[in-house]
Each structure stands twice: as C-alpha cells, then as structure tokens.
C-alpha cells in the first residue's frame, strides 16, 4: 500500500508543470547581442557610410531585444530559431501581436486578427522557448492603451494577456516574463497595479516600464516602486527600457529630437534589469524627426543622433 502511494505520488510529480525555480540570469553568462538586429544589419551593409562606426560602437554591438509579431512568420519556428542560437547568453524577446495593437496611438496598429488567433500565437511563442532561459516583455502598451477602448474591449484584452501569463508559467519555466505597464506619466500607479493584477501579473516574474519611451531611469524607478507597492497584497520586480532615456523625456513620444542612448543592458541599476527593449534607430512612426519612416523601420540618422543626443 505504501509503495503504491509512493509510486502514485511520483507519477503526479513527473507530470506536473515545471516549477519556476531557475533564474535565467543564473543559467546564462550575460545578455545576448543579436548579430541580425536592424542596426547590425545596417552596419554590415554600409561600411562606407560616415555614421557606420558610431552606430557599430554604440548600438549594434550592444544587447537589444528582438521583437516578434505577424511579420515573424510561423511564430514557433521564429522564436525557437532565435533562442536556440543564443548559446550561453540570455536573449530578450518582445511579444507584440495583441489584437487592436496601439489602438489609441495608431502608428503601430495591427496584431492578431481575433482573440482565438492570439491565444494560438502566444501559446506557440511560449512553447517555442520551452526550457531555454529567456526574458520576455509581453505586449508593450497593451495595459496602458485603454483610453479609446470600451469596457468590452478592455475585458477582452485583459483576458488575452492573462492567458499569455498562464502560457509562460506552464510552458517556459526558465523564462522571466514581464507584463508591460506603460510609463511614468501615462497611467496612475494604483490604476496600473489594478490592471496588472487583473491581467495575471501574479503568474509571471513582474512588469516592464518605459518601453519605447524616454523617461529617466530615476523617474521610471519611482513609478515602478509605486506600482509594485500598490499591488494587492504582494509586490513584483520590474525592468526598465533605457534604450533612449539618456536625456530624459521632453514631452514628445514620437521620434523627438535631442534624445540620447541610455544605460546598456545590465542587471540591477534601480530595477531588476535595465534593458534596451526598443531598438535604437527604429522609428516610432511617420512623425517627429522621421516623418517618412514607418514604425519599426530602422533609420540610421535616428540612430546616429541618439549616440550624440542630437
């Protein structure tokens, strides 16, 4: 009888989901530098350009997140191919395919066609990482961009994000996933804490701040601490996008002038990690200093100006 119980217990343990015991930082030896990032590809192809040396030294040789969306093709193939080539280094990925993406801003619209399609996509994303160590930022702006959505759309989106957290918890045990929480001047901290809680932040490592924005690390840290402190009965760590916050925020968000690169990817620094989530040099949309460059497209002048704060 005792032996039968023991065997039954072993069977349960063997089929249970893997625990989130391993730190992806501890499993790796530094952040992955993507040799095929937009800046790296441009540097390879433009050896004679006078801006090339500065972009290579200050941007393309630094760890930068890789964004995944509909443009990635089959998501399982794309994600598994990426994480499986990072060796002993820690990759940072961004899932960016929520239906109705950038509903209020409009420059980065798109996303999966239906909630059902999104669930299939994000489940495949998590499965493709599997037991590989990784960091994932889940759907930038998706929980902050509620201003032009009705209650039904808000509830639908929240449910999709919560499903995403469940998939990463179940299928990617060595991934630290972070739900995006906007930036320091977008949504009040207590409001954002409620949104994160409803969207399942308990299921993942924490939340991200300042993705694709310019607020200083100090302002973002203060906001992150306030959001974490407002969560109902628990706290969560957070990461900050420092890719373009070296000169802080000037009140504009779409390709503003006078901005500068921030601290390259590192652990600590006021948050759990400072990361280059936005790719420096990738346009925010047809606006500001790059009125002819679509969102997500690399512009060498934007990149060069970020090196020097022009």
Automatic annotation (TrEMBL):
<feature type="active site" description="Proton acceptor">
    <location>
        <position position="284"/>
    </location>
</feature>
<feature type="binding site">
    <location>
        <position position="186"/>
    </location>
    <ligand>
        <name>substrate</name>
    </ligand>
</feature>
<keyword id="KW-0378">Hydrolase</keyword>
<keyword id="KW-0624">Polysaccharide degradation</keyword>
<protein>
    <recommendedName>
        <fullName>Glucanase</fullName>
        <ecNumber>3.2.1.-</ecNumber>
    </recommendedName>
</protein>
<feature type="binding site">
    <location>
        <position position="253"/>
    </location>
    <ligand>
        <name>substrate</name>
    </ligand>
</feature>
<feature type="binding site">
    <location>
        <position position="67"/>
    </location>
    <ligand>
        <name>substrate</name>
    </ligand>
</feature>
<feature type="signal peptide">
    <location>
        <begin position="1"/>
        <end position="21"/>
    </location>
</feature>
<feature type="active site" description="Proton donor">
    <location>
        <position position="141"/>
    </location>
</feature>
<dbReference type="InterPro" id="IPR001524">
    <property type="entry name" value="Glyco_hydro_6_CS"/>
</dbReference>
<dbReference type="GO" id="GO:0030245">
    <property type="term" value="P:cellulose catabolic process"/>
</dbReference>
<keyword id="KW-0119">Carbohydrate metabolism</keyword>
<keyword id="KW-0136">Cellulose degradation</keyword>
<keyword id="KW-0732">Signal</keyword>
<dbReference type="InterPro" id="IPR036434">
    <property type="entry name" value="Beta_cellobiohydrolase_sf"/>
</dbReference>
<dbReference type="GO" id="GO:0004553">
    <property type="term" value="F:hydrolase activity, hydrolyzing O-glycosyl compounds"/>
</dbReference>
<feature type="binding site">
    <location>
        <position position="213"/>
    </location>
    <ligand>
        <name>substrate</name>
    </ligand>
</feature>
<dbReference type="InterPro" id="IPR016288">
    <property type="entry name" value="Beta_cellobiohydrolase"/>
</dbReference>
<feature type="binding site">
    <location>
        <position position="278"/>
    </location>
    <ligand>
        <name>substrate</name>
    </ligand>
</feature>
<keyword id="KW-0326">Glycosidase</keyword>
<dbReference type="Pfam" id="PF01341">
    <property type="entry name" value="Glyco_hydro_6"/>
</dbReference>
<keyword id="KW-1015">Disulfide bond</keyword>
<comment type="similarity">
    <text>Belongs to the glycosyl hydrolase family 6.</text>
</comment>
């Amino acid at each position: 009888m005792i032996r039968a119980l023991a065997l039954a217990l072993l069977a349960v343990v063997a089929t249970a989901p893997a625990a989130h015991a391993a730190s992806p930082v501890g499993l790796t030896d530094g952040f992955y530098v993507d040799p095929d990032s937009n800046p790296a590809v441009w540097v390879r192809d433009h050896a004679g350009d006078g801006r090339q040396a500065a972009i290579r030294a200050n941007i393309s040789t630094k760890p930068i997140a890789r964004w995944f969306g509909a443009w990635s093709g089959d998501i399982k193939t794309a994600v598994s191919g990426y994480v499986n080539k990072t060796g002993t280094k820690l990759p940072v990925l961004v899932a960016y395919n929520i239906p109705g993406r950038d509903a209020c801003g409009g420059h980065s619209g798109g996303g999966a066609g239906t909630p059902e399609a999104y669930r299939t996509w994000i489940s495949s994303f998590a499965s493709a990482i599997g037991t590989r160590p990784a960091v994932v930022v889940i759907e930038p702006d998706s929980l902050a961009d509620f201003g032009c959505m009705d209650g039904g759309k808000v509830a639908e989106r929240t449910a999709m994000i919560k499903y995403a957290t469940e998939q990463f918890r179940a299928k990617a045990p060595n991934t630290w996933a972070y739900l995006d929480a906007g930036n320091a001047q977008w949504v009040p901290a207590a409001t954002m804490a409620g949104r994160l809680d409803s969207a399942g932040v308990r299921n993942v490592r924490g939340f991200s701040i300042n993705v694709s924005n310019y607020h200083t690390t100090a302002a973002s840290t203060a906001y992150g601490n306030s959001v974490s402190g407002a969560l109902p009965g628990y706290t969560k760590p957070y990461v900050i996008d420092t890719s373009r916050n070296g000169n802080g925020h000037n009140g504009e968000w779409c390709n503003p002038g006078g901005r500068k690169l921030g601290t390259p990817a590192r652990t600590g620094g006021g948050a759990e990690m400072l990361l280059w989530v936005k790719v420096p040099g990738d346009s925010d949309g047809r606006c500001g200093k790059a009125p002819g460059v679509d969102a997500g497209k690399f512009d060498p002048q934007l990149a060069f100006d970020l090196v020097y704060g022009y």
